[in-house]
């Protein structure tokens, strides 16, 4: 667990062929760590017969609804929270 | 016929007008059983477990949280441990998170990538939860979705949509309804609907008392 609650992070915009659990709608977006969950097996390797090790830390990352979906309504305070694994996150500060 | 050329026998893997996804699942099951990866008993017992679960367990957690503030704090800190206090199994996910709705914040849960859901506490997910329209619109137009469920949020309420994309399962603790002050824990549990624990609806209202 190298990231902390409250830290600003950017989700990598990289393409990933094959199974992964990072939704396209947050790729390249900036949010904030809301919860530090725990470490879990990596679904990107586990999906193909591996043991999924090493474990990957998982975080709940909050994004402003309007940053993700401009012009779709909602208020300035509305948030979308998404679980994202650490190897998809880059600190922005 | 396609290239079905291995030389050991098994049951036919198509069945009349079966949808392609069902045929694929059956074919996978046949192969996994044939390779001793799983047994038919494993499949049957998992299905039995799943269909035996209902949202009554989640409702017990919420009702206890409404009447017992220290329990609510423990539920919000670690829902798996709090469920165990009531003898409830929160399911296979190692981390289960309860999210409290308040006057200022409303949570609703979706799994945009598939259909992740706290099945142990809520039972099998409803079909709409697994549908593409809900999965896409819950994150792009959540207030519109809530309106369609009859849930109107004031603009000064912060809406938090939680997309359970990975190993964590989320349960919403809805707000206790007005007029429920004198009710017992069991009576309160009957107000806690499945949809209120997904966060798309408020709990049921107490029936007006007869005078």
Largest interface, counted by CB within 8 Å of the partner chain's CB: A-B, 28 and 24 residues
- Strands side by side in the biggest sheet of chain B: 1-4
Strand content of chain B: 5-15%
The DSSP helix count of chain A reads 2
Question: According to CATH, what is the topology of chain A?
Answer: SH3 type barrels
Order of helices and strands of chain A: EEHEHEE
Second rung of CATH, namely the architecture of chain A? Roll
Order of helices and strands of chain B: HHHHHEEHHHHEEHH
- How many domains is the backbone of chain A divided into? 1
Low-confidence stretches of chain B: none
The largest β sheet of chain A comes out as: 5 strands, antiparallel
- Helix fraction of chain B by DSSP (H/I, runs of at least 4): 40-55%
What is the top-level CATH class of chain A? Mainly Beta
* Alpha carbon gyration radius of chain A: 14 Å
What is the arithmetic mean of pLDDT of chain B? 92
CATH topology of the largest domain in chain B: Nitrile Hydratase, Chain A
CATH architecture of the largest domain in chain B: Alpha-Beta Complex
Shape of chain B: globular
The CATH homologous superfamily of the largest domain in chain B is named: Nitrile hydratase alpha /Thiocyanate hydrolase gamma
């Amino acid at each position: 667990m190298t990231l902390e609650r409250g830290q600003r992070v950017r989700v990598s915009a990289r393409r990933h062929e094959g199974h992964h659990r990072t939704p396209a709608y947050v790729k390249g977006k900036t949010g904030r760590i809301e919860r530090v969950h725990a470490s879990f097996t990596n679904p990107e390797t586990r999906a193909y017969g591996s043991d999924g090790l090493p474990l990957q830390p998982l975080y709940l990352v909050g994004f402003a609804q309007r940053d993700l979906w401009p012009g779709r309504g909602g208020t300035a305070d509305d948030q979308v929270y998404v679980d994202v694994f650490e190897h998809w996150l880059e600190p922005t500060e | 016929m396609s290239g079905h050329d291995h030389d050991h026998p098994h049951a036919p893997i198509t069945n009349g007008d079966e949808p392609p996804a069902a045929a694929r699942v059956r074919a996978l099951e046949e192969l996994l059983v044939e390779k001793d990866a799983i047994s038919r008993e494993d499949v049957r017992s998992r299905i039995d477990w799943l269909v035996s679960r209902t949202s009554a367990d989640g409702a017990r957690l919420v009702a206890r949280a409404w009447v017992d503030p220290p329990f609510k704090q423990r539920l919000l800190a670690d829902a798996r441990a709090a469920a165990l206090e009531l003898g409830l199994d929160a399911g296979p996910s190692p981390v289960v998170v309860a999210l409290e709705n308040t006057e200022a914040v409303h949570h609703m849960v979706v799994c945009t990538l598939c259909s992740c859901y706290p099945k142990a506490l809520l039972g099998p997910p409803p079909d709409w939860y697994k549908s593409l329209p809900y999965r896409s619109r819950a994150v792009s137009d959540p207030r519109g979705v809530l309106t369609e469920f009859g849930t109107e949020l004031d603009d000064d309420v912060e809406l938090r949509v939680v997309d359970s994309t990975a190993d964590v399962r989320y349960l919403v603790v809805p707000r206790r309804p007005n007029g429920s002050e004198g009710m017992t824990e069991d009576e309160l549990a009957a107000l806690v609907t499945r949809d209120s624990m997904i966060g798309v609806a408020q709990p049921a209202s107490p029936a007006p008392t007869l005078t």
